[in-house]
Amino acid sequence: MNRLLYCLLLTLFGFTAVALADPPNIILILTDDQGWSQRSGLMDPDNTASGSSYLHTPAMDRIAEEGMRFTGGYSPAPLCTPTRRAILCSTSAARSGTEFESQWVPADHLTIPRALKQANPDYRCAHFGKWGEKMISSPEECGYDVSDGHTGNVTGGMADKMKPAHIVDDPKRTGSVTDRSIEFIREQTQAGKPFYTQVSYYAVHLRTELMQSSLEKYQQKGAPDRAYSPGWAGMLEEVDSGIGRILDELDALDISDNTYVIFTTDNGGRGAVPGGDPKSPAPNVPLSGAKHSLLEGGIRVPLMVRGPTIEAGSICRVPVAGYDFLPTFFDLAGGEGSLSDELDGGSFACLFTDPKTDAVQRPVDGLIFSRPRQGMAVIRSGQWKLLAEINTEREVQSAKLFNVVEDIAEQHDRYSEQTEIAKQLKARLSTYLKTVPDPSPAMKRRKSDV
What we know:
Blueprint: H1 3-11, E1 25-31, H2 58-66, E2 68-70, E3 73-74, H3 80-89, H4 93-96, H5 112-119, E4 124-129, E5 146-147, E6 166-167, H6 174-191, E7 195-200, E8 209-210, H7 212-220, H8 230-252, E9 259-265, H9 296-299, E10 304-306, E11 314-316, E12 320-321, H10 325-332, E13 367-371, E14 376-381, E15 384-390, E16 396-403, H11 419-435
Helix pairs in contact: 5-10, 6-8, 7-8
């Protein structure tokens, strides 16, 4: 029996096999450098600091309100390309590469489009927007039918990137990426084909680009409530408008009821934004740290899912990560049988109908994060997060233990109080790092990145 159907029957949520007769469409929306608390709605309804009163993101908020918020959603890595490889192949960054450069060739491995076509050959798959830096393989080589090709940061604009704002005709290519995504969705709907579309926006990555009207709107709003700039806030709203156009198109095509929309970002928000007031609260509050770091601010990210079987306004506190997407999408597409033994992720489709279930099964019990360049590695399991220092051979040295449910800012090290839990997590992390080859080229260890 298909695992997703099994979960649905177990939860007695009122759905039967008939509800899954038509393969669902799946849209993954990926923004760039957007922090966990950086939208107008609350990421966690129990934490009033998990949103921003200065920002305006009604479309992102709509996904949350009409679907499920994952308060413990994580990117696979604290920076761009490692996350994009990990999402594509359902691998931890420790397996597929923790830095931009890696010997991991995505085309040689199972990928999301290949898994979907394995589940159902009728799926048409497209990738629009930012592919990533030094990805080696093209989208088509990884199984996509349509794409924008080998795109990266430069495609989305990088010149004079520290200027507070640039006024351009198609800021961060948000409009054109949205246009191509909508065109593909229309074509597949008219052809009666199920589709997977990954919409990888270039914003809100440096450089800051937006329209004059957006800049003036936020300049008139006064000082931001965090250390980001009016230009950055306007750029974010323009991305949100693009997302809103996609949601409206699904309604116009009458396919919203059979389409899963997943929203997340590639890593945590930056610690500093050009034009932001350094005296203001940090951009990622209430989380500690920022992009590049394995603190929560570098890897905990917004994650919301809307679609069939998901109750509007629901909350899930079970930790999940972007490298869980591939097996989840495989389940949603009706896939059966085994997948690659290289996968580190597990399907969290069962959480859509029972957000408290303990049914997410991964090869390793917990989420793994690694950044040898900074000498750090992490395992998150349940409420606990072990933040370990590792040497150049990826051997675990000292560690700290945090309850990141009660202590989201990671201020209280519980290692000495919970020695048995710490010992178990340390052993689990050590074993994983020893058994998984590191495909990243050797490089000098750095304590920080700019």
